[in-house]
Amino acid sequence: MSVFLCGPLAEPRILDIVAGPDVAALATQAAKVSGYMLLGPDAMWFPALAERKDHCVEGLLLRDPSAHIVSRIEFLMQGVGAAPREIVLTDGRLAICFVTDHAPDDTAGWQAATWRAKWGLIAQAACQEIMGYVGRIDQQGLIWRMPMILARAGAQVAAAAGAPADLRSAASADQVQVTSVDTPHEGFFLTREYALHHPQYDGGTSDLLRREVFVVSDAALVLPYDPRRDRVLLVEQFRMGPFGRGDPRPWALEPVAGRIDAGETPEQAAYRECIEETGLHLSGLERISGHYCSPGCSTEYFHLFLGLCDLPDEGRTLGGLDSEAEDIRSHVIPFDRAMALLDSGEANNGPLVLSLIWLSKERDRLRAIA
After folding, report:
1. 15 touches 51 (CB < 8 A)
2. Predicted structure pTM score
């Protein structure tokens, strides 16, 4: 049976990715369906059809696609919460479309130009990863991975902006010759193994190198600071890094931190994470840095901020999201005690060290304007 495609599924680049090598054999034509609406609020990266009276959706009719292509489309749509349904098009023909039952009544309609500007590149990157799982994981496995798939896609798009190369080499990543790419681990996180040659400073090319990289998302980190009371807030939680290294005390003092979700700016993530982890509403942000935390083996990129706020009296509180299994304790302490943590070595988390050093340099300015 034919398949009705609309919204992102009808975008040529998305359809190329989803159909795979068989895309050249596809036959499509314009089509419409009544009684449905393509939902597209700003936060939805891949909207689906929902039943709505007095609405009509234009799209493409994929005529008699192979069972293989239909299964690939269905796999993707399962990940975004849509199920196949037989419908009647406005011209009377039957087709399969993918419909969601989980859309609120007040959801706005999809706007193609708005979607392309915010989600187009992110959706392409996410679909590339999703299609790589076809035939290897089930629907629940895909749904479980979706938050990180989208976060990785957002990070990939953000990375394309690059950074200046006034001192370092301006050689392009396109000059790296990749022989093979494997993904030996595909859980919530990914590990990719590359075999490659890269340009050398003497004008030559390296021998074949095999390197593994831990593929994660970008993160926003915030050190909350009250310039009037000269206090900072630190969070403390159990961390697998110290535990896996053999540290006898794997609870770490840190700034507030969290993943930047797809479609979210680092600043938006910073404000959100402060509320989720500590219940704290910031009055403003000061950017400290944007940097790779461990560029030799990880894709993780940190956006580090100082968060201006009013802090309560000194003490400890508990916080975090149960849905993310967070068990977080917050400490409100004077600036001088925070700096003493640097001297003692108890502050052994890189972003915290960097934030406190930055604060020591900017503290007088911040207090003067508070």
Report:
1. no
2. 0.89
